[in-house]
Write a structure and sequence with these properties.
18 strands, single chain, seven-stranded mixed sheet, flat, about 675 residues, 25 helices, alpha/beta
């Protein structure tokens, strides 16, 4: 077969390098029926179009068929230790790649591969293997020989099961199995102790893989029922870490995961003693969901074995009850209260952290010989058996209201349910309307929301409040935009019933439960004493970060026009009463000006007013004799603040990114009079 002369090779190079499709198409035609010179491999490999970016590589693999030539070709395609054969329309792998030494990264994604040959296991230097977007149905067990593999990506294939080989891939760190047809994950995956990323989204996995419990370094995963990829999986990660430190068996840990993920069918099969085992684990969400299940059983059991005169009770775990008060109430009702587990017991009140030291007694629970109930059921019993109305004496009214408000503001679902039960038994003071509305919007249990709604409807005739109750919006948001979404929802509800609800208290309650809502609170709360109280709760030592409270979302200062969508606000004057502050951050709070009374913060050492709407500084700023650091960057100054020349105590001033810099930036240089007055001050331009 005729080979090319050097002159012909040079001519072909010129045609291919010339970036015109007509030229390299001509070159490809000339190469059609003749062996391609190795000197052209790299040049041809770089040929591509928008429609077919790997056209050159695909052409080479179609025309280079001899084994020795293919080995040369593959070596020339190497970039360091990486071989990228993605988007080459490959239907089978070139077996010659197994002869390439020190191949660490192999990209075979976006091809037409239907199977992976068994010889893939012979490339034992491989550390990363990408097989995404192919037509694979199975994975060869020979991949288990790749004991150096750290990344294995198999997304967008047709894989329905995984071979049990992961126990050999002990160095695996990243496993992507998204959008396949998997139903289960092999237990052998637990041996991948270094795995930190496991992506399972787009499969048909309906139960939580037990193997997650053993992957202690796992920090990024998707496709787990009940979790959104965009949200952090902090609670599950915390639970896994806690379980790893306990002495629970594998089955007990699995039970905990089922309860946590609210797998109703599986949880309904758990015995009382198994539920109590889960209560020992110090994880709030797990304990709450366990108590919810115990409460379901208790509600039914009490119908058959009610608390009554002659019953004998005790507590297992921690509750909110005062034991002496319980003893006194039980004595009045003819019920025996015992501080210890004993044979005569008829009822056990289960609380958080319940222990199983009296295993024999717990076996009696499983047999149904002892009835168990939660704090909620006991409180309801006392409410019905004693006073018909919760608030009878003025001396106790304020304290009772505060206790119920504390239950609601804890944000714990069980405490909200308990508050509703207390009010059902004793009536609803008007002072607790906002707390009940909060429950209707925040509680996860539909039954609790329904009962709270009834209590509100019985306590008010306001048609506007009833509109809010009918609104199905929930006051629960997570993620980066949570504060923004909460603000919009509260604003919508506020417009429905401005005068019929104490929005100061409701917004504060929303914040206490969810951690969001302070922006709305400070925009709409006019009660200065209330505002001061909330501010005082956020002072740490002598520092106040009002930015972290209020400005959780702000304009991007890199885009000057983004500020046009925000309205300026006043400086929160309640801050001025905290004269002991040494550090104050009010960045990105849309503040239009600093008041002259800023001088009242006489102990202030650091002041950050970054990202606001300031045009000038108050003349009283020079009275802050202890002020050392001042950040006024990203504001709208039209001229250099002359008052700075009198602030000779300043050690550092940040004046960068003034938003007028696109037209006439007054901070492009420091005036001479400022330089002379503050020779030792560090100016950040």
């Amino acid at each position: 077969m005729h080979t090319f002369t050097q002159q012909e090779i040079d001519n072909l190079k010129s045609l291919i390098i010339n970036d015109q499709s007509v030229n390299f198409n001509l070159a490809f035609t000339l190469l059609e029926n003749r062996p391609i010179p190795p000197q052209l491999y790299n040049i041809i490999a770089n040929v591509g179009t928008n429609e077919d970016p790997r056209k050159g590589i695909r052409f080479l693999f179609e025309k280079v068929t001899q084994e020795k030539d293919r080995i040369i070709l593959i070596n020339k395609l190497l970039r360091g230790a990486t071989l990228d054969l993605s988007r080459c329309h490959l239907q089978e792998l070139p077996k010659e790649m197994k002869h390439v030494s020190k191949l660490r990264v192999l990209r075979l994604d976006n091809n037409n591969l239907e199977e992976i040959p068994t010889w893939i296991g012979e490339i034992n230097s491989l550390q990363s293997l990408y097989l995404d977007n192919n037509s694979l149905k199975t994975i060869p067990a020979s991949i288990a020989k790749l004991d150096r593999l750290q990344v294995l990506s198999l997304s967008n294939n047709h894989i329905s099961s995984l071979p049990d080989f992961f126990s050999h891939l002990t160095n695996l760190k990243n496993l992507n199995l998204e959008r396949n047809r998997l139903k289960v994950i092999p237990q052998s995956l637990r041996k991948c102790v270094h795995l930190h990323t496991l992506l399972l989204k787009g499969n048909i996995i309906y139960t939580v893989p037990d193997v997650l419990l053993y992957l202690h370094k796992l920090r990024n995963f998707s496709g787990i029922p009940g979790f959104n990829l965009q949200q952090p999986k902090k609670e599950l990660l915390e639970l896994k870490e806690i379980l790893a430190k306990t002495n629970l068996t594998e089955k007990q840990c699995t039970n905990c995961l089922m309860i946590f993920h609210q797998k109703k069918r599986q949880v309904q099969k758990l015995t009382p003693s198994e539920l109590i085992e889960a209560l020992k684990v110090p994880h709030d969400t797990l304990q709450i969901r366990t108590l919810d299940r115990i409460s379901e059983i208790a509600h039914t059991a009490l119908k058959k074995h009610p608390l009554q005169a002659g019953s004998s009770i005790t507590f297992l775990g921690k509750t909110n009850f005062n034991k002496n008060e319980v003893r006194s109430q039980c004595k009045e009702l003819g019920i025996n209260y015992s501080s210890k587990l004993q044979e005569q017991l008829t009822h056990i009140i289960i609380g958080l952290g319940a222990d199983n030291t009296a295993f024999t007694t717990l076996q009696e629970l499983d047999k149904g010989q002892i009835t168990y109930l939660t704090e909620k059921e006991l409180q309801q019993f006392f409410n019905e058996a004693t006073s018909p109305y919760l608030l009878e004496e003025n001396d106790t009214q304020e304290g009772s209201i505060q206790n119920i408000a504390t239950l609601v503001y804890s944000g714990m679902q069980e405490n909200m349910a308990l508050a509703v039960e207390i009010l059902k038994g004793g009536g609803t003071p008007k002072e607790l309307i906002e707390e009940l509305i909060l429950i209707t919007k925040y509680a996860k249990d539909a039954k609790v929301r329904k009962e709270a709604t009834k209590l509100v409807e019985l306590s008010t005739k306001s048609s506007n409040v009833k509109k809010i109750l009918k609104d199905r919006s929930r006051l629960q948001f997570k993620g980066r935009d949570a504060e923004k979404k909460m603000y919009k929802l509260l604003l919508k509800l506020w417009k429905s019933a401005k005068k019929d609800i104490n929005w100061d208290k409701l917004a504060y309650g929303v914040y206490k439960c969810s951690g969001n809502g302070l922006r709305f609170f400070f925009d709409f709360c006019k009660d200065e004493a209330f505002r001061s109280k909330v501010l005082s709760e956020h002072i740490k030592g002598s520092s106040l970060n009002y930015y972290a409270m209020y400005a959780t979302y702000a304009p991007d200062y890199l885009f000057q026009y983004s500020y046009n969508h925000y309205q300026p606000t006043e400086f929160p004057k309640e801050i001025l009463s905290f004269s002991d502050l040494t550090t104050l951050d009010v960045s990105n709070c849309r503040i239009a000006y600093l008041p002259d009374e800023i001088s009242q913060l006489e102990n202030l050492q650091e002041l950050s007013i970054h990202g606001n709407f300031l045009l000038e500084l108050p003349t009283t700023l020079s009275q802050l004799k202890k002020l050392r650091k001042l950040d006024i960057s990203n504001n709208e100054f039209k001229q250099f603040p002359s008052i700075l020349k009198d602030c000779t105590q300043l050690e550092e001033v940040n004046i960068s990114n003034n938003r007028k810099q696109w037209s006439n930036n007054p901070f492009h240089k420091i005036p001479d009079e400022i330089k002379q007055a503050l020779p030792n001050t560090n100016f950040i331009l």
